[in-house]
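Box 3.1 A note on notation
Throughout this textbook, protein chains are presented in two layers. The first layer is the amino acid sequence; the second is a token string describing backbone geometry. Keep the layers aligned when reading.
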Amino acid sequence: MKKVLISFIVIFCSTILNAQTMTSYFNAGNPIEVDGKEFYLGWSSNPQEGYYLQEYFPKGEAPEHYNDMFTVSLFEGSVTPEIAAQAKANELATRKESDKICNYRVLNKDGEYIVDFVVSDMSSGQLTTVEWDLHYYKSVKIGDKNYLLLMFLSQRAYGDDIIPLLKHIPDNIDRRINALTKKKLKIEIF
């Protein structure tokens, strides 16, 4: 199990760092409406057979600088929602040692998991970016194959918008978790 967990972390991190394309590897809709916003495909990756990642943004936003993002990731195989959520929690526990804003919690219900977290970046001792993410992990079957499905909502704030975002979280957490866990996608892999 430890080997599967390490493989999942390595693959997920390398995907984020190495992808440069925007090919649609699966159909989940475009745009996708979540929490009252429309998100359009803006970035994608297929770093290995059976692993797909697509990021969606409101019109006018892009991966390099965004305020809102919705991501759909599929990982074929035996990685369970519990293993994936624990891997993210372990990553965040390590980050918390150097990121004073970093905070997280793991929620689970009926074998599905949410990791709710906040992370930040600094430059020259100044807080430059804060990101609030909700990662939702569940098992799904597409065709005759089993996948780990990760859907997540991300909100970022920069500079003077950081404090308003942090104040916004408590009033919006329940609504956003509900929007994410109730989102039904009909996914077709190409």
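The longest strand covers residues 126-142. The CA atoms of residues 50 and 103 lie 31 Å apart.
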